[in-house]
Amino acid sequence: MNELKVDISDIRGEASAHKSFEVKSDLGSLDIRGQTINLGEVSSSGEVTNADEGIMAQATANGHFDLQCSRCLANFGYDLNIDISEFFSFEDGEAEYVVEDDNIDLAGPVIEAIALNLDIKTLCKNSCKGLCDKCGTNLNLGKCECKTEKIDIRLKKLQDLKSSLESKDREK
Q: What are the sequence ranges of the domains in the chain?
């Protein structure tokens, strides 16, 4: 469906007239930063006001969808709750959004707000440990058997020298 249409025919001819609304729709899927997100059903409620040259919409959008954690690659639920304030012009000039057939469609502003409000790196939780660099085990679920050495790259040459001296001592 991909629409969140609000009928404004009853306030179009009357300056400063306003009305409340509540709409819901399946907004389909969205590709953001290489991740396809199935938005599913999103509901929006708020108020529209006739602002002479167009309609001012103040709304809150709510929904729930799954994201993939950037560290451990597990799917996790994300609750959407964003506020939207957008102007819809009666004229088809330079306005980003226009009134069409006495309707405004909030789908565009809602999708835009979702894209702007998602973190660049989505995490299942702030304390996510991610995956093991060597074997790929999800470190949130348990430890792996990989040997991990913490080597300060600035001291790598000293570590190599120490290993070299130790091997020479063993040869003697």
A: 5-117
